[in-house]
Amino acid sequence: MKRYLILEDGTAFSGHGFGAPITATGELGIQTSNFGYQEAISDPANFGKILAFTTPMIGGSGINAIDYESIDPSVRGIIANDIAFHISANPTFQDLNDFLKEKRIPAIYGVDTRALVQKLKNKRVIKASIMDTDDAHAFDQIKALVLPKNKTAQISTTHPYAAPNIGKTVAVIDLGLKHSLLRSLSLRKINSVVLPYNASIYDIINLRADAIVISNGPSRVEEVAPFLKPVFDKFYGKLPILGIGLGFLAISNYLDLELLDLIPAYNGSNFPVIEQTNNRIWQTAMNIGQLVVPDSLSLNLSRKYFDLRSELLAGYSINEDKVLATAFNPEGSPGNFDAASIYDQFLNMME
């Protein structure tokens, strides 16, 4: 079935429909990983996006129970150059097409994704729709579309829950939490309790938490900062705090560091970061739209991590305040484990 991806600038891309045969609208996002499409599709930080994959083909390895980053994916649609319709007969793997139908996610393949990358080259956000037509009415609809605000409020858990273990207790504030973050903490015997994005300081006090983790998520930092300010006011410098992705931006905003928009935003697993103290380079995964301007720093940072593409600050630690913040996802997923030692640094802060 022929379907269309239409953009707010009047451009239309035709392709073959698969997945759910429904209409969808959202923000166009580019995913640059060469692998890990299941993790990207189910990453809550991709909430509301029509996600275009730059790798030539997706779907070959199917969908499995281990690689979910959330049970119910919240992307609005998938765009691919080509897909694999046939996977091995292993009953533990599900076909991508069937998975997308089950989750009511529309998709198109046969699209020139390189041209989509060029469309986003000089824009931070562009609206997109998956439709059955590319007539004038369709373009009128997308022009009238208003993208949702404060996506974190829609994707965060509404009730606290535990990921139990036998070690220290960490309050994890869910701004768009990935399963792999909890898995990385659990592997280090951390007893995690996940709290909503608008958790109060009393929720953390009542847990007798040893530390706080602020997860990644899909919103702009201005939308979550008012909810996190009381937490920082109460616990900054008293409890170890780790911020990842949107959590990194929230800590940086609280410290009044200057944030610069990335155009286009980073979304993939191929972003090299260098640690200034030892010149070690990590290949990292990011899903973020801003980084820190180094010249805005007036703090005594213990470690600095620079993004080699933009030369902006992608992470830092302040040992005297027990703060660790990274724009990249230390657990990868998708991506490798180069930066996994960030969790070990955080564990040392708790000792």
Automatic annotation (TrEMBL):
<feature type="domain" description="Carbamoyl-phosphate synthase small subunit N-terminal">
    <location>
        <begin position="1"/>
        <end position="131"/>
    </location>
</feature>
<dbReference type="Pfam" id="PF00117">
    <property type="entry name" value="GATase"/>
</dbReference>
<dbReference type="InterPro" id="IPR036480">
    <property type="entry name" value="CarbP_synth_ssu_N_sf"/>
</dbReference>
<dbReference type="Pfam" id="PF00988">
    <property type="entry name" value="CPSase_sm_chain"/>
</dbReference>
<dbReference type="InterPro" id="IPR029062">
    <property type="entry name" value="Class_I_gatase-like"/>
</dbReference>
<dbReference type="InterPro" id="IPR002474">
    <property type="entry name" value="CarbamoylP_synth_ssu_N"/>
</dbReference>
<protein>
    <submittedName>
        <fullName>Carbamoyl phosphate synthase small subunit</fullName>
    </submittedName>
</protein>
<dbReference type="InterPro" id="IPR017926">
    <property type="entry name" value="GATASE"/>
</dbReference>
